[in-house]
Design brief:
It contains 13 helices and 9 strands. By secondary structure, the protein is an alpha/beta fold. The chain has a single domain, classed as Alpha-Beta Barrel (TIM Barrel), CATH 3.20.20.70. The chain has a 9-stranded mixed beta sheet with strand order 6-5-4-3-2-1-7-8-9, with helices on one face. Helix 2 links the parallel strand 2 and strand 3. Helix 6 packs across helix 7 and helix 7 runs parallel beside helix 11. 45% of the residues are buried. The structure holds iron/sulfur cluster (SF4) (2 copies). One iron/sulfur cluster binds next to helix 10.
Length: 354
């Protein structure tokens, strides 16, 4: 199972998507439970992955070190903005299986939303991790806004030759409604996505696997299926708030529906898929899995917003599904194992459906 641990609610950036730190009453800035409570929750699980999360998780490096020194798990993951990369000694960086660095694409777009200088710090963190010999999965974790150009921004990040994978989430429903949402989807996003997919397919034909996580993740879901939602929130993934509350999804720190337990109790978690209709009857359900539990529950943009998101999801899935025969043929011709193309091999917090 995936255990996402908030190390603090504090963040040193104020990105427009989330507005910076959580309030102390939502995600306290210090961890309020004991390490023994965490051990009891996690150590019986032979397949456990711990992912450090925040706020900015590196605002509390001592907690990360404590956990990495004392809790035995199969894998460690971290999602960071990269600005404080030097606050954790090299030894610990090398223990991670996956490191996700938040960066949205070209500098101008990134810094518009994340603050001036954030791009340079993120890229410099990725460089530093490579320099010290980190050889796990380095992932560029993008947030897509109406200033993004998916083709330009993904190709830019792949072109830097630092990241193994690029993944993105659409900043839908979290923010105010976009100025020209439909126009952006039809005239910008879908066109760019198709172009990106064509390059991915062409590279596969040339025996090269481009690390575009959504295409690889969708391929995996088409071939293997999986739980709903694809991020496994509330089923095989829980998040532990610094106050000890255990929630299904790390975004849902305020929502009652998301509460599945408390670290100080007997650790019986109330786990189940919370995705039901209309998703379970949808022909895309096996692959889409309801996309995102939070969006499914909190329809900030109403029914119409939900439908718009579904339309984009279906378009993305179809790119892979309608070319499955060719994809599998190219993989075979290239002499690559399908497992090298399917992604991720374990839940590393990449949500698969953008
Ligand atoms: S496409 Fe929409 S309705 Fe269908 S499974 Fe996904 S989220 Fe649910
Ligand atoms: S995809 Fe949605 S439900 Fe899953 S972790 Fe992200 S916000 Fe939560």
């Amino acid at each position: 199972m995936l255990y996402i641990l908030f190390t603090t609610g504090k963040c040193n950036l104020r990105c427009e998507y989330c507005g910076g730190s959580f309030g102390e009453n939502e995600v306290p800035w210090k961890v309020q439970y004991k390490l023994d409570d965490l051990k009891r929750l996690i150590e019986h699980d032979n397949e456990a992955t711990i992912a450090f999360y925040g706020g900015e998780p590196l605002m509390n490096p001592n907690f990360i070190i404590d956990v990495m020194e004392n809790i035995k798990v199969k894998r460690f993951v971290i999602q960071t903005n990269g600005t404080l990369v030097r606050s954790l000694p090299e030894k610990y960086w090398k223990m991670f299986s996956a490191i996700l660095i938040s960066v949205d694409g070209v500098e101008e777009v990134n810094d518009k939303y994340r603050g001036k200088g954030a791009y340079k710090l993120a890229i410099s963190a990725a460089n530093y991790l490579r320099e010290i010999g980190f050889n796990g999965d380095l992932i560029a974790r993008m947030t897509i806004t109406e200033d993004s150009n998916i083709f330009r921004d993904v190709m830019h990040l792949l072109g830097i030759n630092l990241f193994d994978h690029v993944h993105w989430q659409l900043n839908f429903i979290w923010s105010k409604k976009w100025r020209n949402l439909n126009e952006w989807i039809e005239q910008n996003y879908k066109i760019g996505l198709k172009k990106l997919f064509d390059i991915w397919l062409n590279e596969l034909r040339n025996k090269k696997v481009l690390g575009i996580a959504p295409f690889q993740g969708i391929l995996k879901r088409i071939l293997d299926g999986g739980v709903a939602p694809p991020c496994e929130s509330g089923v095989n993934s829980v998040s532990v708030n610094t106050n000890g509350e255990i929630i299904a999804c790390p975004i849902a720190v305020r929502e009652n529906w998301a509460k599945v337990g408390n670290i100080r109790n007997n650790n019986t978690l109330n786990l189940k898929s919370m995705i039901t209709e209309p998703c379970t009857s949808c022909e895309y359900f096996k692959v889409c899995g309801g996309r995102c539990l939070y969006t499914y529950k909190e329809r900030f943009w109403g029914e119409n917003g939900f439908k718009i998101t579904c339309d984009v999801t279906k378009f993305t899935i179809d790119l892979v599904k309608n070319n499955l025969y060719e994809i599998l043929g190219y993989i075979k011709n290239a002499g690559i194992k399908v497992d090298e193309v399917k992604y991720p091999s374990f839940n590393n917090t990449v949500e698969i459906i953008p």
